[in-house]
Fold this sequence. Notes:
By secondary structure, this protein is an alpha+beta fold. It has helices at residues 31-38, 44-52, 122-130, 158-166, 239-246; strands spanning 18-21, 57-58, 61-62, 74-77, 92-96, 100-105, 136-137, 146-152, 171-179, 188-195, 204-206, 212-222, 225-232, 274-282, 289-293.
Amino acid sequence: MRRKLRSPLPQRDGLDPVRVHLPTDGRWATVRDFLVERLPKLSPALVDEMLAAGRFVTRDGPVAADEAFRPGGFVWFHRDVAPETPVPFELEVLHRDEEILVVDKPHFLATTPRGGHITETALIRLRRQLDLPDLSPAHRLDRATAGLVLFVVDPALRGAYQTLFHDRRVDKTYEAIAPHDPGLTFPRTIRSRIVKHRGVLAAFEEAGEPNAETRVELLESRGALARYRLHPRTGRTHQLRVHLNSLGLPIVGDDLYPEVRPKPPDDFTAPLKLLARSLEFPDPRTGRPRHFHSRRTLPWP
């Protein structure tokens, strides 16, 4: 297994520095020229200011303003994080040992830094609160979804736990509240091809070889709504939301399916009624089964 390249910069408030690769087909005269083109969110003036302050570094030290471009190298820096609206819900630690950490994530809290959610994420919160700088996620759970997330405490075991998810050796179950259609029979298995394009909020189904499979069970119904157990056998982006929507049963609180209706980042009302209920997998070291269950509930609307 390839060892992770260690950064010459330490973490800052639980956040890892950004790593930028210098392409091998470089056509830039200086590292500065490359950074200006590669990082369009940073103005040329800000790049110059950061270079003067020694904020861009390589393994050899700070990058000089006129340093020649070196194909194949790496540059690290700390991003300036914009203020974020605090997510007013707490993470609950369900299990912690020297190897792993299992938490019950609330709705509206992203798992890892991405886009406009950097500090208000489960990973950064846990690193700070538990003083675990090497903590890393074994998988991800959507910001809109609540429930179980597995993190790896021991860096040496990160690959082993991530491989469990990659090889589909983790049995995951979810619960959802969605419309009830008496004309549909359950349990049923949905198989389809789901595609998600980068920069586009919603995924969609298209013709072709199925790459997503979900078993859906009806647990109970109350009038126009029902509670479902979902067992995904694959892990495509938004798979459960797409599959229920394809049945004409969009999950209550879904702001992407059947139509995109994004909420402001400070709107914490009407959460998506989707919960990652359980995780079961063989321990990658001992082979013994491990079982974890969420303590959260999905109240009826």
